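for the record, two folds in this file. i put them one after another cuz i was lazy. first one right below, seq on top, structure tokens after. the second one comes after a little note so u can tell where it starts
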Amino acid sequence: MSIFIIIIALGIIVGGITVLKKSAQKFHLNKEQLERVKKRSKEQEDKDLKNK
């Protein structure tokens, strides 16, 4: 009986991962948006290093 429960649990986990992978969408950013993201990321890294 416990093996059956383990198989069901593994099936639910694998199924959930598969659904997430299929529903994931890529972001299509233009150059300006990408530059802003990189700038913001750099600012946050600098801020984090300063706060340590």
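(here's the note) second protein begins now
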Amino acid sequence: MKRLIVILVLLGTAMTLTSCNMISGAGKDVGAVGDAVRNVTN
């Protein structure tokens, strides 16, 4: 039973770290689009 709990905690941690990286990447993409629009309008 302890082993199952440890595995679930590790999987949860891995999923959390992955989602943080995805959100960070999406933020960079949105920023890049904003920069491109600003460059086109100037």
